[in-house]
Amino acid sequence: MATNEAKKKPNAKGSKKKEVKKETGLGLSFKKDENFGEWYSQVVVSAEMIEYYDISGCYIIRPWAWKIWKLMKEFFEKEIDKMEIEDCSFPLFVSPAALQRETDHIEGFAPEVAWVTKSGESDLEIPIAIRPTSETVMYPYFPKWIRGHRDLPLKLNQWNNVVRWEFSNPTPFIRSREFHWQEGHTAFASKEEADVEVLAILELYRRIYEEYLAIPVVKGKKSEMEKFAGGLYTTSVEAFIPNTGRGIQGATSHCLGQNFANMFDIKFEDEKGNKRMVWQNSWGYSTRTIGVMVMVHGDDKGLVVPPKVASSQVVVVPVPYKDADTQAILDACSDAVKTLTEAGLRAKADLRDNYSPGWKYSHWEMKGVPLRIEIGPKDLANNQVRAVRRDNFKKVDIPMASLAEQVKDMLDDIQKSLFDSAKEKRDACIEKVATWDQFIEALGKKKMILAPWCDEEEVEKDVKTRTKGEMGAAKTLCSPLDQPDIPSGTLCFASGKPAKKWSYWGRSY
User: Fold this and answer.
1) Would you say residue 359 lies in a domain?
2) Region Disordered: start and end of each range (predicted)?
């Protein structure tokens, strides 16, 4: 469906009227609270975010969604530029020899690795893997570039696509065979430098979620079971979907320690002439972010996009009643778009003459445009516009003279309101427990559970085993970096042993 301005302007007052489509059927047939999975699948297609492809688990990301990714990318690139991290590009293909250099790491990805085995009709002598991530692609070349301490730190980032083939229940954005992301790979002379970067990048991921996508997240550390395969430790930002009672890993920042340095012989000569292994990090966030945004903010009318990442922040719709001066209304719409665009806002007018205003309202509501502006004969006479918010559908009349200023304020308020509402819903789902019985009760209520834990892997495995069911087992989501106090004598909710930390638990995507 075209959404650009019509090439031919609608007929002015007194001209022969064109047939106006009054199609219905724009609404969703599933409700978010009643059938979340079907609702989500319908929203991402109806809002023109994705199109299904003829290979299962692969999706076409349409412009409406890609712009969201682009706006997040612009923010992130500016921030990592300040950290003197440079963009690069490594090949899509990985040799089996490179993959096998790091056994522990590749074991975590082995079932998901896709292999190229033929070239035309000929079998390849040696199969070639398609990258599931790029550690084994990049690190064989680090020893060529790192010789002495003056070559450090090495800070690289690439924007690319990766393939992870084996899984069940593909979900657009959330779980797909091919996805887009950025992956940073850095090397330092000391662990202290690596530790600082891990948290600096994690803070950028928090900002992407909270400041751009208006989604509250917890910054935390993953358990030994859940950390990145082959890494020293993993930090993450964790979101929560109240409708499903599931946590979702938003982005990760890993300290890899010296494991990969040992495997790929990445050494440097320090100031005293001694040979030492580098300390490495890797970190990434993906197009999964877009799916989390849909899940958190969407409603029964469709998508709700926070203004900071909206492809169009404002859509202007003419409302020409019978006998109105249609051309004057269209000109006012164009003037409004010009005013808003010159003020730095992303605005467009829907001047299509073959759709009714009501149909356009539903169309742009489905696509989640934060603010709709309507201009009809009365608005024209009063030199004003009517603004309708997407988040709460409140209406307000705005004088044309202060249009840009008031629209900016409204968009800022929408951004804040979306975050505040999401945080209120998320916080209502957090339950603090002390015992196993309380944990099971909270899990049954689809809560995000904060519990004291002894931090033992066997206990974590036991919790997974004891909670396994149709909805999936509970697991650790993360241990928050901002740890609440643990009173003396506090016991682990699952083992009864002395508790060492607080951790979030729950089912997850």
Assistant:
1) yes
2) 1-20
What is residue 195's three-state secondary structure? helix
Cβ neighbours for 244, distance < 8 A, ≥ 6 positions apart = 36, 295, 446
Residue 134's φ and ψ, nearest 5 degrees, are -115, 10
Side chain identity, residue 431: E
- Domain encompassing residue 348: 312-411
**Same structural domain, 46 and 174:** yes
What confidence tens digit (pLDDT) does each residue in 296-328 have? 999 999 999 999 999 999 999 999 988 889 999
- What the block records as the tokens of 285 is 């966030």
Contact 246, 508 (CB under 8 A): yes
The Cα–Cα gap between 411 and 307 comes to: 6
Q: What is the pTM of this model?
A: 0.92
Beta strand 86-87 pairing with 50-52:
unpaired
Same-domain status, 220 and 127: yes
Sequential DSSP letters for 429-495: TEEE--SHHHHHHHHHTT-EEEEEE---HHHHHHHHHHH-STT---EEEEEESSPPP--TT-B-TTT
Q: What is the mean pLDDT of residues 446-473?
A: 95
DSSP string, 47-93: TTSEEE-SSTT-EEE-HHHHHHHHHHHHHHHHHHHHTT-EE----SE
The CATH number given to whatever domain includes residue 466 is 3.30.110.30
C-alpha triplet 471, 475, 481: angle, nearest 5°: 140
Report the number of distinct structural domains present in the chain: 3
Last residue of one domain, picked from the residues 297, 331, 349: 297
Q: Kindly state whether residues 147 and 220 are assigned to the same domain.
A: yes
The single-letter DSSP state of residue 228 is: P
Cα 460 from Cα 471, distance rounded (Å): 18
151/257 same-domain check:
yes
- Domain CATH for 355: 3.40.50.800
Q: How far apart are CA 23 and CA 34, in angstroms?
A: 26
Rounded to a whole number of angstroms, the distance between the first and last alpha carbons of the chain is 33
Q: The domain spanning residue 204 has which CATH number?
A: 3.30.930.10
pLDDT bin (cut points 50, 70, 90) of residue 223 is very high
